[in-house]
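Here comes my example:
=====
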Amino acid sequence: LTMNRSQSYYDLFPVTSFLMLFVLAFYGLEFIEQLKWVREQGEGGGTALLGVSFSVLDSLGSFSTYHVTDGQYWRLLSSAFLHGGLIHLFFNCVVLSDMGRVCEPLLSTGRFVTVYVCSAIGSSGFTYIWYVFIAGRPNNAVGASGALCGLIGLLLAFSIRHRQDVQRDSLLRWGVMIA
């Protein structure tokens, strides 16, 4: 894929751009809510701006086995747009940008969105099953890692099918690093 001077990143990768803006908008909301939370906590909440508090993430839709068990299934997706802090947000956006630049041209817009959303919901669903039925303990989670792993899996399958050994090996290393 070549880019000429008149084409912006958004022109070439509109879905990836939208997803990144959506994640950033959610983080803006998290930041505003975190500031309110710190003010309410007084002295004890002063260092909490380095990360986002559990109560703020919970109020905005983080994944929680308790809430999903209570029927709040929307958390299976909303949690993929929330992040626990700036470092978490930064690395998820870098990976989304990298994966989007490769995946979006391979798929139609609808397919790319479908893979991303299904991967986000599927990873949360698997996490729910794991913690409720196998580990037998509660869990809370946020982040786009599950959706991003779905994109990595898509590229891995593509590289195996098209015998792209270098890309396959690189994706396998990345998958091992994430795990």
